[in-house]
User: What shape does this take?
Amino acid sequence: MPDNRLSTLISEEAIQARISELGAQIRADFGSETITCIGVLKGSFLFMADLVRAIGGDVRCEFLGVSSYHGGTRSTGVVQITQDLRFPIEGQHCLIIEDIIDTGLTLDYLHRMLSVRGPKTLKMVTLLDKPARREVDLTPDYAGFTIPDEFVVGFGLDLGELYRNLPYIAVYHP
Ligand code: 5GP
Assistant: This one.
């Protein structure tokens, strides 16, 4: 049954086409280096699964658990690490993989936290970028789509843990 609280913002086809482009661009930029991909849980899990396949070559997959919303639709600005990396990243070429950048507080915090661990490279990719509500000066190295200031769900993004399995991105109308 169609859910009339959802309206499609980015189709499955458009997402997949853009991920292919991002993967090729990232692989070209990193050359033949092994890339340590650091997925920010939970929202990035679908994007990461498709992106690492599009990047190709040698990649390692690691995950950071972060909680910043506590179930609501507004960022609290308080970033809680619920699962840290299991290995050191010193000397590695790293790519942080995020689902969406909104205020920028989460990624800014993670970037500072990881950069002190001495990676050789530390880049950031986000599927979605919502620059309208940025509170810190942060520009990702790679962004899939710039979107308006709307609350979106799907393709890994949730509302109260639902909707993550939608294969497209939708605006949620409460
Ligand atoms: P920021 O710290 O940049 O404000 O927010 C980052 C996190 O907030 C994202 O990783 C994501 O979990 C959540 N977030 C921000 N905007 C949205 C949105 O429109 N929809 C959903 N579902 N989560 C969002």
